[in-house]
Amino acid sequence: MKIFENIINHKINTITGDELFKYAQQFNIQVNRQQAYKVAQYLKGKNVNIFDDRERSALIKEIAKIAGPEVAREVNKLFVQFTK
Fold this sequence. Notes:
The chain is an all-alpha fold.
């Protein structure tokens, strides 16, 4: 299972705005293209583990600061989908 976690975390840490927007649409998450770009720009190179609840929580708080709390909630929903 660790290999899948590594693959997903790598994807999160290298995701582009377009990819994040595409995934948001696929999972019916309410994030517009501009918000997706902001979040993707923040995530680039962070090397975060979204499977660790504390790391994901800290990341969501930072996303709330840059893109707003509603966007952070929506991105968290997307991250939860990735970890299932």
